[in-house]
Amino acid sequence: MNAVGKKSVKLTIELVPSTCWYNNLRKYMSKAEWDRLRRSVYAEHGHRCAVCGAPGMMICHEIWRYDDEKHIQTLTGFTALCSMCDHVKHIGFAGILAKQGKLDFNKVVEHFMQVNECDKAAFEAHYREAFAQWKVRSHHQWTTDLGEYSHLIKHKTSPNF
Predict the structure, then answer these.
(1) Is 159 domain-assigned?
(2) Helix 120-137 with 105-116: angle, nearest 10 deg
(3) What is the pTM of this model?
(4) Does 15 reside within a domain?
(5) The domain containing residue 90 runs over which residues?
């Protein structure tokens, strides 16, 4: 999923398979350790969103690679995102927040279109493709590999690690 029409996509939807939900590095680190890591990621990106360049409050987003044959989810890095780019990345959760009246879903869609310089039809195609991939991936139990970041966990309390 790397093109909207014939253009390269700068901001993509990245849906985590349902069998991997809540399985992330932050969950297994102390607040102080996570704060230290996320602040270094924000500094690395000049306290701006790595996708759209917006300044302000950032979210430390984990970057995952998925091996669809072996069903291994591997942490490959981190990036700084503004809240709107983060909502696009996790658009399934954004939809839940919108249904609860906590988020304007149309603004999330508009942000995707603005960053990717595309129209609603291109967004909808990318959205359908992301959810189709999510549905296939969610049929499998995944193993989580923290890769080069596994040393950051002192006690491996998850059976998937």
Answers:
(1) no
(2) 110
(3) 0.87
(4) yes
(5) 3-152
